[in-house]
Amino acid sequence: MIKMFNKEFWITAMGFGIPMWIIMTLFYGVTDEFSLTALLINFIAFVIIAGPLFATLMILFARYSFKKITITIPENETLIKEFGANLFRGKEGVGGKIALTDKSVLFKSHKINIQTGETVIKIEDIISYEVKNGLFNLLKNDVTLKTTEKDYRFIIQGRDEFITELKKLNMSI
Fold first, then answer.
1. Secondary structure element (H or E) that encloses residue 12, with its range
2. Beta bridge partners of 145
């Protein structure tokens, strides 16, 4: 079931609906006569209907993509949990799935990305992490894993649970 009363759903819905309402109201204001009726109709169409519909479609797409991604866990490792995630490779936020095992963090992208493939980060190589909140501090899902070689920036659904499990595995962070 789609959780329509969580914060992420409404941020996505309003993040789509309100700008579309403003753009279309300005468009109609330039091309036709501006009226309060047109303003109200656009509000209903974009903020009340199109925004939640867009958020629902995004959730359904994310669930479908999540199920399609299979991360192969090495034989000598035990899966702790999988999370939906984006890994930033340069400017691209590569969508996919992240798996936390007892020895590593495994990321695999879905096929719709420009940059595809897998990333493996050994738990023992992680020296620290940094968490940030995105979208005006409304979304609490940004984490950067710092290793001796490189920093890996992720957007993780369930970030707090991921960090809690990671701390159990690597006591030094």
1. helix 7-31
2. 129, 152
Q: Which residue from 15, 116, 2 is spatially nearest to 63, judged by alpha carbons?
A: 2
Burial class (CB in 10 A: 0-12, 13-18, 19+), 98: buried
Tell me if 112 sits within 8 A of 96, measured CB to CB: no
Q: d(Cα 159, Cα 173) in Å, to the nearest integer? A: 16
Residue indicated by tokens 């995004």: 58
Residues of the chain with pLDDT under 70: 1-5, 32-33, 134-139
Residue type, 66: F
- Please name which of 71, 137, 130, 132 lies closest in space to residue 104, comparing C-alpha atoms: 71
Q: What is the pLDDT of residues 8-57, one digit of tens each?
A: 788 888 989 999 999 988 887 787 667 888 888 889 999 999 999 999 99
**Does residue 85 contact residue 155 with C-beta atoms inside 8 Å?**
yes
